[in-house]
Amino acid sequence: MLITDCLNEVFEFLEEDHYTLHSCLLVNRFWCKVSVRNLWRNVWDFKYNFPVIRQMCISSKILSTLIACLPNDLRDYLNDNGIFIYTPTSKSPLFNYISFCRVLSIHEIDRIIFDVLKCQQADIPQSLNRNRHLVSRAILKMFMRQIPCLKELNFLSMGNIRNISNIGFTYFPGATECLRELSILSCSSDVYSEFFYQLSQICGNIQSISIKFEGFVSHGLKDLISSQKYLKQLSLTQYSHKVKWKDVISLLTSSSDTLTNIKVLVLSLNHMGNFEDFKELQHVTFSLLQNLKFPHRFPECEYLYKFLEINGKNLKCLHIADSDRSLNLLIAKSCPNLRILTTTFTDNEIDTLEIILSNCQQLESIKVWCGYGCLDEKILLEILTDFSPRNFYKLKLIHKANSRLFPKDLEEFFVRWSHRVPLKPLVLIIIKRYRVKSLEIQRENMKVLEKYKKLGVIKKLETVKFDDD
């Protein structure tokens, strides 16, 4: 039992590393029995750990496993409709894989079915869509029957999924028990209304909702949001210019009672949208809000000023991808308890950064752009040494242009940092952008970084790929 618990701890740590987790299946029967639960908890992203050339093979294996797990009545249902999908063996599967699933991705299931059927069958489009619908229906019926407690549901209307007739899986036998404890929902705004209406009747304890606004806004979406009692995280992303931002904002203003528990709010507007309708939200109180994120554009300061005046003091994390001087000064004034900040400083905002570091005395981490109109790296390091609060320890650097830091600059910075009292070893994360040479490219720079890592001045040094979120 102790060995099983230890292995479970290891496999929990590897949950996002599907490739390594899959290799654990092959060690021995005991490891296979323990690790298979973690692998099938969320099997839908598994194929993306492999090159594109292998993804079709993996999709085919996942679908054949699902078909092998189908109860006899559902498999007969497919056979009676002339649908025969290869399974590796006629015997029952070694495990009840379906019962391990805690994450269900409707669009990924549909994509797997579509890809495999298109590859295996030379059907005309109408026949392909019919078979695709029938296979999807059978598999979703099986999931509703056999998943004891689903935790996360993803239902995005991506690509060809729009061509499928709506499958009302929320009405299938077992759906109420399967979905009752759902805690994370990611969906598109234009999923059929009945899905949202039914989900609002079944689920009242969803803690995180992410909505991508495309096409139109289903009528039932407002009911779903307003029916949640413990909603802590809400992410609203405008993907299509067909959906007006005022329709997005209205979901918040009409569900004010639901907002009292929200701790994380993400508002993402594409470049075609207009954030003027944020003025309808400026007076709304999010009494528990701790994390506010604008991944792309941000509202006019005149609207954001009142919002931060009401909600800024509670904020611990603020992410604004493309800021300006007036907004940075507003942050310094309205958000004194920030611990994590992502923002942009232009090359003439030295004093603005100093003001933020002086006013936000709880600040522990900052993520900033450097070069090409943004703050110079060397100046940034000097300001952090002189003005950053006692608890500051994490710096994330994104280079807009090739780094101009030299080894002597780094030496000077780390020597000064090592004399801070108390000394907080630095976590340095370098975020690499395509075709931009960041500071670690120079071999001599890396020697300095490794030197101060060994001396304990750098706690962690990491290089990651750029992600515009």
TrEMBL record:
Gene3D superfamilies: Ribonuclease Inhibitor. It comes from the Eukaryota. This is 13026_t:CDS:1. It comes from Funneliformis geosporum.
